[in-house]
Model the fold of this input.
Amino acid sequence: MKRYLRQFTFLIYALVLRWPIWLLLWFAGRFGIFKTVFLIYPTDSSECLDFCPDIAWLRRFFSGRPTPAGLIMNGWLPVGLYLVVPNPALELMRKKNRSIVHDIVRRMLWIKKLTGARTIGLAGQLGPIFEKRHGIPMEPPFYASTYGNIFSIH
Done:
């Protein structure tokens, strides 16, 4: 029951409230609140099912679209935003999904511009996958969080 409630909440949040949330993030970005945006991904399909129903057209809609998932906080002060994509690392690793990876990068750059963030963090394996498999250099504003370590946000 919890899973279905979480999925329903995510769908309302990600589909119905999508544009008001982007507008709110733009407004917050004008005040320089966010220093970084950080992209996370599910490690397997069961983790993805915790927030997104396994409906084919929904998976296609959210594929490659970073969706706001929460705030990175320093005490009570938000310093960043983390986003989620429903694509597991093994799916993004395939060369046939290169267009999805380039869509993710393009959208992350747009989100960085929208929110006024200075850096874009990629969780876990995403940095090496983007760099070695798809030729996207890990140069500023991108940084990779390898071996489970998150680099400090300045």
User: Anything to note?
Assistant: The CA atoms of residues 34 and 151 lie 16 Å apart. Residues 147-154 have pLDDT under 50 and may be disordered.
